[in-house]
Amino acid sequence: MFVTYGLIAAAIIALLYPLFRAATSPLKDVPGPFLARFTRLWFFRSRWNGHAHLDNIALHGKYAKDGQFFAPIVRLGPNMYSISRPDKAVYGIGSKMPKSSWYEGWKHPSPERWTMFPDRNIQRHAETRRKFQSMYSMSSLLHYEEYVESTQDVFQTRLEEMVQDGRTVDMHHWLQCYAFDVIGNITYSRRFGFLDRGEDVENVLASLHSIMSYSTLAGIYSWAHPLLYKLLEKLPGSGAQGRNYIIQYTQRRIREREAERLLQSEKRHDHDHDHQHAPRDFLDITLDASQDPENAMTPYHVSMSNIIAGSDTTAISLSSIFYHLYTNPKSLKKLRQELDTTAGSRTEVGMNSWVAHYDAEIFGADVEEFRPERWIDADGEELKRMEGLFVPFGLGSRTCIGRHVFVFGDL
Fold this sequence. Notes:
By secondary structure, the protein is mainly α. The chain has helices at 2-24, 41-48, 52-62, 88-91, 122-132, 138-141, 145-165, 171-188, 194-197, 204-218, 225-232, 239-269, 273-276, 282-289, 299-326, 329-340, 353-357, 360-363, 374-377, 380-389, 403-410, and strands spanning 73-77, 80-83. Helix 10 (204-218) crosses helix 12 (239-269). It is globular. Keywords: Heme, Iron, Metal-binding, Monooxygenase, Oxidoreductase.
């Protein structure tokens, strides 16, 4: 009897609590779907249907007031809100606000298997980013260019083969193959083989997509993620099993790379000079860095981050570019014209500083006259333009190294 009453009381509380929370919330006036005041089911359904981004845009437009294009804030759930602009308090550098609980769904339940993207630990994320951000800088990425170019050559060969056959080409599929092989090459110095086989190698694509589908929904009810993961990790095709597969795949690649490094080290001792000049990949750098006990980032973390965060997003971006180009003929035509009129790789371009210094649009109609006061008479914007084109010591990295000695000597 008491058990029955207890269950009834629990059910009543469970029903009344969302109503009480909605009525007493200090943010109860924030607009949004009626259902979202009481439950996250509205947001879950939007994600499930695959058009959450469109629903989000529509909400900000629907609740915009006079003079606004978008409402600055709308409701997605009882304690979940969407802002229309990247407020510095939330997204600014040095912000003390951690990522939301939604990112829990993107983690492996084991605390040791964290990666940078969903990491909610502000201090750990900041320290890790500081140590490894140089790996992803533009100057560092230029060292991986050889890996990208070799993959591009294979991709071009495959496209030319398909054109000769006259077959219809699924560009999204092939761009996925290209993106994964590029990521594989810059991470492990070795392509995964997607372009060679033209198919999902070792079920990696399917596993990755199952992770994405699972994580985007599991994050909405993040408290249930550890239990769900445990229940689903044995179920074929589930996001949990997909993540476990990617983990195993990554660890296998790391072991292979470590064996290759050992062999390469032996070759270097045998004076293999050609290999000494081969570009280092991501795994090389992180394997070296992992020798330092203070480095929290391991080869596993970098590999998982590159594969999950880098490959699919690259493929989607490339697919989107191709789609929009071919559905907007004017843009495609303009792009082709620009490519056709672009100078070749052996074209030499340079500027004679005399020409620059005799530009009347910058220095005035009396540019040929000796009038030093032009530098005093010029207003702020005019002076800025003149100084920008006054280049007696050269520009950029080729600026005269002794320019300060010259100025000091004149003074």
